Amino acid sequence: MTKSWTADPNRPVRAAKGIGGFSLAPGFRLDHLSASKLAGTHLTIPNLITILRLLLVPAVVLAMLQERWDWAFVGFVVAGVSDGVDGFIARRFNQWSRLGAYLDPIADKLLLVSVFIVMGFIGQLPLWLVVTMVARDALIVCAVLLSSVMAQPVEMKPLFVSKANTAIQIVLAAVVLGELALAVRLDPLRPALILLSGVLTVASAAAYLVAWLRHMSGYGESSKPDT
Length: 227
Fold this sequence. Notes:
The chain is mainly α. It contains 7 helices and no strands. It has one domain (30-217): Four Helix Bundle (Hemerythrin (Met), subunit A) (Up-down Bundle), CATH 1.20.120.1760. The chain crosses the membrane at residues 45-65, 71-89, 110-131, 137-154, 166-186, 192-213. It is a multi-pass membrane protein.
C-alpha cells in the first residue's frame, strides 16, 4: 500500500490492465476520481476503441438472449481483440490518457460480468459461480468506498491470483460461447474451467480482503512521514 500519491498533470497515465483487480491506473485512489482530474482529457484512438467495446456489451448480451450464439461469440472475440489493440496503440504511439485509464477496465469488467450473468440466467453456467463472481466484485467495490469514506483511501493493485482468475473467466466465457456457436461439446474442459474459476474467485476475494484489512489496520502508521 502506498503512503501518498501526487498527480503530475503533464505525465501520461498508463491504463492498468486486469479488470479483476479494480486498479484503474497506477496509484489510483477513489478520492482522485473527480471532474477536475478528468478535465483536459481528450479522445484518442485507444479511447475510441474502448468506447466501441463498451457499445459491444449490450449487443453481445442481446445476441445471447436471442440465442444468436454465432453473433455473440464473434462479438466477444472482437471485444477481446480490441482490448489488446487499444493497449498496443497506446503503448506504440504514446497515447495513454486518464480517460482511457478509467474507461478500459470498466469496459472489460462490464463485458465479463454481463456475459456471466446472462450465462447463469439461461443455465449455461451454474448460478453459484455467477453469484460468487458478482459478490467478489461487490466486496472489492464496497471496501474501496468504505476506505475512502473513512479517509483512508486504498490503492488496489491487481494481484497475481486476480489476473489468473480473470484469464480463466475469459477462457471459460469464450469456451461456452464457442460451444454454443459451433454446436460442439468440450465436456472435460468446461467443468474444469468452472471449478478452477470458482476456486480462483474465492481465493482472489480472500487475498484482497487480507490486503485491505492490513491497509486499514496500519494506515495511521504507514501514513506518517519518513524521518
